[in-house]
């Protein structure tokens, strides 16, 4: 929600002097993930249809806000850095304000009695309650125009004297915006989702919509793998990938979203199975080729041997070694050469 609260330079310096909530990189990464999850929930499935540059800009907003609960970088900064338009960034902040994820206030201009750069506060940050009290956000007017009166909001008692209908409680409106719809538990999951998958996921996400979304991601990853697996084989890989993702989530190893990490783990598992399958097929083909070549090499063409040798071999039960076979062949060859010489001599 955008409110016409103007922050003086002194107040802004006090905000900047506030001790950071995330004191190290790990804490900052964890808080960024918390804020990013609120953004993803506000967008729903549309979040993954946003351009990559837009998602990167949102990620950077959450990173900036992880320290003290707000950021004040201008629209053109994100637009230039992530190659998107200023309008795209404005649409993002507008959407998050309407969803109750973000509040926007303004710094007072140092040259005139008007507003300057915006300051965006994330509601899900632990410091938001502090800013709400310090800046008296719950007493500010929500529908006043900045062009008419660029002054800080008056107290609730003073404003009620002038127009009791022109002011509302910001906190009450926030609760209305953040009111969640009824969540269906895992028993409402569609029938095409395997029961084994539901049983494995429901202890962590007892939400039919979330379970269905995760299963759709498994199907998408499976289709891109070009594998032909049975239901049991597929479920085995899916369960292993889900457990790996849960382990990474519990140890704060997931930098982005849970769904994205789960999808990437699935693709890596399917890739390993594909590589193992290709290697097995190659080894099988090589083995068959070697067996075929060995069989050809050991085959003996009996029609090329002399008749007396064939008869002798058939009547002899003793195995003839390769060396004896070569000697007999040379003897037979010498006999044939002698017979040919005698016939040539008689013809002369």
Automatic annotation (TrEMBL):
This is Helix-turn-helix domain-containing protein. It comes from Domibacillus mangrovi.
């Amino acid at each position: 929600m955008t409110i016409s609260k103007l922050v003086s330079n002194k107040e802004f310096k006090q905000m900047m002097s506030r001790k950071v909530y995330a004191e190290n990189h790990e804490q900052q990464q964890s808080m960024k993930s918390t804020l990013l999850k609120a953004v993803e929930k506000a967008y729903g499935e549309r979040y993954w249809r946003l351009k990559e540059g837009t998602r990167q800009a949102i990620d950077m907003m959450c990173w900036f806000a992880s320290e003290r609960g707000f950021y004040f970088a201008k629209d053109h900064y994100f637009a230039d850095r992530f190659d998107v338009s200023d309008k795209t960034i404005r649409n993002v902040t507008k959407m998050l304000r309407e969803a109750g994820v973000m509040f926007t206030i303004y710094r007072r201009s140092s040259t005139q009695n008007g507003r300057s750069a915006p300051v965006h506060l994330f509601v899900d940050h632990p410091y938001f309650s502090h800013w709400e009290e310090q800046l008296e956000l719950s007493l500010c007017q929500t529908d006043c125009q900045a062009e008419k009166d660029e002054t800080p909001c008056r107290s609730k008692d003073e404003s009620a004297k002038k127009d009791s209908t022109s002011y509302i409680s910001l906190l009450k409106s926030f609760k209305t915006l953040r009111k969640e719809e009824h969540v269906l538990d895992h028993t409402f999951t569609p029938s095409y989702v395997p029961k084994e998958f539901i049983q494995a996921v429901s202890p962590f996400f007892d939400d039919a919509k979330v379970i269905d979304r995760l299963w759709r991601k498994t199907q998408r990853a499976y289709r891109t793998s070009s594998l032909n697996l049975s239901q049991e084989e597929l479920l085995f890989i899916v369960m292993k990938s889900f457990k790996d993702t849960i382990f990474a989530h519990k140890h704060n190893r997931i930098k982005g979203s849970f769904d994205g990490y789960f999808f990437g783990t699935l693709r890596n598992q399917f890739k390993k199975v594909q590589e193992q399958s290709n290697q097995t097929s190659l080894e099988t083909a090589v083995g068959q080729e070697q067996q075929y070549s060995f069989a050809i090499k050991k085959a003996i063409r009996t029609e090329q041997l002399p008749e007396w040798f064939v008869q002798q071999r058939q009547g002899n039960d003793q195995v003839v070694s390769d060396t004896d076979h070569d000697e007999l062949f040379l003897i037979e060859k010498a006999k044939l050469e002698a017979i040919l010489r005698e016939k040539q001599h008689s013809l002369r």
